[in-house]
Amino acid sequence: MKLHSYLITDPALYGTDVDTLNASLPWVLSKVVPDFALFRDKTTAIYPLLAHRFIRICRQYGVQKIILHGDYSLAHRLGADGVHLMSTQCDAIAAAKALGLYVIISTHTHQEGQNAYHLGADAITYSPIFPSPNKGTPKGLEDLKEIVAKIELPIFALGGITTQAQITAVKECGAYGFASIRYFISIKE
């Protein structure tokens, strides 16, 4: 079974302006094209402008599913493929699905995963699997195996995934994919 890759941006690594994004994102995508890519920046005042540029660059490189963070209306307006909702946005799943968006939602417990499944999400991220800055106690691989066995939904392992060995480990747990910020930045040419 193929393990799907999910790139997540961080403004500290991809920049907070169009020029920096224009330089950093193509640099990463020239090394590896992920199956999914998420533009995530919770603080910028120019999110729509940066998101629009992100979508254009990802399309040029052939990313299969281009995702925006949190705002399903904006994702629809800008022509993104989907939206990644926060765990507190379960009530937005139906509205996002009604717009034809692929919906991924963040989860941190088995109950949140079950809830996302019942509300019609297309996939979830489950985190943190490994130690990750400011993300709390890692769930670990055994817990990942348990949720994969419990929920009939594509599950992206997230949190602290920075090495090929960790990617192999989450694949062996049966995860649909892995999501990471730092892994994609650290790939050598």
Structure characterization notes:
With 189 residues, this protein is of the alpha/beta class. The chain has one domain: Alpha-Beta Barrel (TIM Barrel), CATH 3.20.20. It has helices at 11-14, 18-29, 47-61, 72-78, 93-98, 110-118, 141-150, 164-172, 182-186; strands spanning 4-8, 36-39, 65-69, 82-85, 102-107, 123-126, 155-158, 177-180. An eight-stranded parallel barrel has the order 1-2-3-4-5-6-7-8, surrounded by four helices. α2 runs parallel beside α3 (47-61). The longest helix has 15 residues, at 47-61. The mean pLDDT is 96.
CATH superfamily: Aldolase class I
> Beta fraction of the residues?
15-25%
CATH topology: TIM Barrel
Major sheet attributes: 8 strands, parallel, barrel
Number of strands: 8
**In order across it, which strands form the biggest sheet?**
1-2-3-4-5-6-7-8
Mean pLDDT: 96
What is the CATH C level class, in words? Alpha Beta
- CATH architecture, by name, is Alpha-Beta Barrel
Class derived from helix and strand content? alpha/beta
Write down the Rg: 16 Å
- What's the SSE pattern? EHHEHEHEHEHEHEHEH
